[in-house]
């Protein structure tokens, strides 16, 4: 069962992904980000049909269950399963438009992405509309460039970038924040490959998620 949570007071953040499976590389940097910028809640948005990557190995219900197991008992996190009910690609801008309409124009709202996604953001559907709907919070990722692909994209980043988290709380949208979060070299691809090889994943994801993967026979 999923939890659609009404926004708490202050800045509310959203974090999307296929979560195939969810792992510490998702959770720990977001927990550090919450400390850094003062987030009371982060809503995880599992994708159904991701437009920019291969389709997930686990089905929608399995991935939702893994997210719920990973965040059980952690008040920072909630989960919103709206994208899993779509049969069309999950475009972030459309999800954000719907959430913005629900929350109203004044709620400070942020969407969390990784440095890898920032560098390819100009390939996203209607990417230039994103900052009219939310702030962007960027998690550090190991091995990725810290400069945008073109001077025009770098100017866009420099124009919107803020270094003081207070700016994220005082405005509903429009700013971009590069977070100083830990660099964890964990990927869902690595976890799936380890499972395919019969290797241990104990240090990569929460134990309840690992137990569920084993029970469901996923990533064999």
UniProtKB/TrEMBL annotation:
Keywords: ATP-binding, NAD, Nucleotide-binding, Nucleotidyltransferase, Pyridine nucleotide biosynthesis, Transferase. Residues 14-194 form the Cytidyltransferase-like domain. GO terms for biological process: NAD+ biosynthetic process. The keyword Aminoacyl-tRNA synthetase does not apply. The keyword Transferase applies. It catalyses: nicotinate beta-D-ribonucleotide + ATP + H(+) = deamido-NAD(+) + diphosphate. Its EC number is 2.7.7.18. Pathway: Cofactor biosynthesis; NAD(+) biosynthesis; deamido-NAD(+) from nicotinate D-ribonucleotide: step 1/1. InterPro entries: Cyt_trans-like, NadD/NMNAT, Rossmann-like_a/b/a_fold. Coiled coil: none annotated. One of its GO terms (molecular function) is nicotinate-nucleotide adenylyltransferase activity. Catalyzes the reversible adenylation of nicotinate mononucleotide (NaMN) to nicotinic acid adenine dinucleotide (NaAD). HAMAP family: NaMN_adenylyltr. Belongs to the NadD family. This is Probable nicotinate-nucleotide adenylyltransferase. It comes from Serratia rubidaea.
């Amino acid at each position: 069962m999923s939890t659609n949570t009404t926004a708490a007071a202050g800045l509310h953040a959203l974090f999307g992904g296929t979560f195939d499976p969810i792992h510490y590389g998702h959770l720990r940097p977001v927990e550090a980000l919450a400390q850094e910028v003062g987030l009371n809640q982060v809503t995880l948005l599992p994708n159904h049909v991701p437009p920019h990557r291969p389709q997930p190995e686990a089905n929608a219900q399995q991935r939702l269950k893994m997210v719920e197991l990973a965040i059980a008992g952690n008040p920072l996190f909630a989960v919103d399963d709206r994208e899993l009910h779509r049969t069309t690609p999950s475009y972030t801008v459309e999800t954000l438009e719907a959430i913005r309409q629900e929350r109203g124009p004044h709620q400070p709202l942020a969407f969390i992405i990784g440095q890898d996604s920032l560098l390819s953001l100009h390939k996203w559907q209607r990417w230039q509309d994103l900052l009219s709907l939310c702030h962007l919070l960027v998690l550090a990722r190991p091995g990725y460039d810290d400069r945008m692909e073109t001077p025009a994209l770098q100017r866009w980043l420099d124009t919107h970038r803020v270094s003081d988290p207070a700016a994220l709380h005082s405005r509903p949208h429009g700013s971009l924040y590069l977070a100083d979060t830990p660099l964890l070299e964990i990927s869902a691809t690595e976890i799936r490959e380890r499972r395919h090889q019969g290797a241990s994943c104990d240090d990569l994801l929460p134990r309840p998620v690992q137990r569920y993967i084993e029970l469901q026979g996923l990533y064999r």
